[in-house]
Amino acid sequence: MDTETTEKIVARIKSAVEPAREVDDRELRNTFATHLKQVAARPEVVPIEFDGRRLEVRRGGTLLRAAMKNGVRLMHICGARTLCATCRVVVESGDDNLTQMSGAEKFSLRWHLSISPRTRLACQARVNGPVEVESVFPLCGDLPNG
Ligand code: FES
């Protein structure tokens, strides 16, 4: 190992063991206050269209949760573990208003031969704004009374 490489390694080790930079208390408070204002200014309710039904859902929640809370019957056999892909939906519009696809979601859609820019797992996609989606496997029939 040459001297230059050794010096680089020593410098990296030294920087790794140095104590973390002191955080200015005022800076931290300002950052927190700014973040709080952003959260407070953000409307919590987002209108979406699910299987032709207009729903109002909580921002940040999943499409599956939005469907279940509003009586839209959507299959979700694995319980939102990205295994079954029965909660698949086709995004008709507003795909920018859904969170990015995670690696697990991509893997599941690929495994179920459904990978496409318009297909999402309702149990994974979180709503940030208005979207229009159609379920691939809607449940039919009435729920049993009980
Ligand atoms: S519920 Fe199984 S993948 Fe979404």
Order of helices and strands: HHEEHEHEE
| The top level CATH class name of the largest domain | Alpha Beta
Bound molecules: FE2/S2 (inorganic) cluster
The computed structural class is alpha+beta
Mean pLDDT figure: 85
Give the uncertain stretches in residue-range form.
none
Inertia-based shape: flat
Largest sheet: 5 strands, mixed
Alpha carbon gyration radius = 23 Å
Strand residue content: 15-25%
**For the terminal residues, how far apart are their CA atoms?**
74 Å
What is the fold named in CATH at topology level of the largest domain?
Ubiquitin-like (UB roll)
Describe the structure.
- With 146 residues, the chain is of the alpha+beta class.
- The protein folds into two domains: 39 residues, no CATH class; 91 residues, Roll (Ubiquitin-like (UB roll)).
- It contains four helices and five strands.
- Strand 1 and strand 2 form a beta hairpin.
- The longest helix is centred in the N-terminal third of the chain and has 17 residues.
- It binds FE2/S2 (inorganic) cluster (FES).
- FE2/S2 (inorganic) cluster binds next to loops.
Relevant terms:
146 residues, alpha+beta, Ubiquitin-like (UB roll), 2 domains, 5 strands, 17% strand, binds FE2/S2 (inorganic) cluster
Give the helices and strands, then pairings.
Layout: H1 3-17, H2 25-41, E1 45-50, E2 53-58, H3 63-69, E3 88-93, H4 103-111, E4 119-121, E5 132-135
Parallel strand pairs: 1-5
Antiparallel strand pairs: 1-2, 3-4, 3-5
Residues 76-78, 80-87, 108, 121, 123 line the site of FE2/S2 (inorganic) cluster (FES).
Summarize the structure.
By secondary structure, the protein is an alpha+beta fold. It is built from four helices and five strands. A hairpin with a 2-residue loop joins strand 1 and strand 2.
